[in-house]
Amino acid sequence: MEKTYKWDMADHIKTKDDVSGYLEAALEENDTGLLFQVIGDIARSEGMAQLARELTLSRESLYRSFSRTGNPSFTTVVKMLDHLGYKIEVKQKTA
After folding, report:
1. Is 85 helix (H, G, I), strand (E, B) or coil?
2. Which letter does DSSP use for residue 93 in this model?
3. 6 in a domain, yes or no?
4. Is the pTM of this model over 0.90?
5. Cα separation, 38 vs 25, whole angstroms
């Protein structure tokens, strides 16, 4: 019998370059559900309980918000990205 293991992206995010690349790839997909899941993966790699305390939000709320089916407020997304060292920028599309 073949043994399987649970694979979790959060276990493979080690550097700021990993975080940046993962966020950029998610943004290219134009899929908010994917983006929220990616932010959640990044948050878990940093330690969700600690982030929740620092952001004065509940850990359960963060897990729910940043799941594939989550629907965090824009304020929560901006707050989380800021805390992780990122900001949202708007650029005009190129043709």
Report:
1. coil
2. P
3. no
4. no
5. 9
